[in-house]
Amino acid sequence: MLAKTQPDDIALQLQRLEPLIGHTPVYPITRAYDTGNVQILAKLEWMQLGGSVKARPAFNIVKQAMNNGSLDGRRRILDASSGNTAIAYASIGAALGIGVSVCLPENASEERKILLRSLGAEIIPSSRFGTTDEAQELAATLHAKYPERYFYADQYGNAANWQAHYHTTAVEIFDRTGLALTHFVAGLGTTGTFVGTGRRLKELNPEIRLVALQPDTALHGLEGWKHLETARVPGIFDATLADHTDFIDSAEAYRVMRRVAEREGLLISPSAAANLAGAVRLAETLEEGVIVTVFPDNADKYGEVLEAVFS
Fold first, then answer.
1. CATH code of 108's domain
2. 2 pLDDT higher than 70
3. Does some domain include residue 3?
4. Could you give the C-alpha distances from 74 to 5, 58, 85, 142, in angstroms and in order?
5. Is residue 144 in some structural domain?
6. 9 domain residue, yes or no
7. From 14, 66, 255, 293, which residue has the greatest number of CB atoms within 10 Å?
8. What is this structure's pTM?
């Protein structure tokens, strides 16, 4: 049972948590791939509260909701997630004394479920035969039925998602690279990382090229990613932003996971590996440049994938 927290206490704790969000290091890929005069840099996004890039939008969604009165401490945070955003909400909710309920596909990994339960989150399972699309429908239904019980965070439709990356991720990248940056590459899930980061980078330098990545099929192994032709398109997605869209095969991402572990000493997630695969593919078409991508999380929550990739 979470201790009841007063609004002033929550506001103070939000201030204390903010330094733990973002400010992630940039790692140069130098040994796994020889890309000549093209430099590839990766933001190690698991090095923040909650262990993934989703700390940024989750924190901003909660902060904005507290500021505008949508989340007053009596309601529980409710959202649909494939796992990482759920863990970010749970970490933030535990620190603030606010309950968290997550609509999670029943086939989500055991590692994710254990983490969520450890952090005190309520797991509301959606169909094991569905995706986060069905989890979103369940969350919306629950909120409509019990509006007084839940604050529906709606990461797929909440502008605070992409705005988190607009104000933090993009600024951190540009501060590190400046006008040397030529390309930004990122996969599409909620699309917040790509939309927010890409939108701000284009404002800072219109010459920067934005490359969006998707799985190559509807049935894929890139958890959190969306094949937009067959999935529900997130409300925050801006289809006009990408200069180019590339498609990544899950098997290719798994090969990249192994290569990066053996040559860079990093155990990265399938989605991080897919981002790197897209960056390397892009680098092979360039004579020179600086490409930045995002490693959303590491491999800690992917036991079955690790066993398959490294056995």
1. 3.40.50.1100
2. no
3. no
4. 9, 18, 21, 16
5. yes
6. no
7. 293
8. 0.94
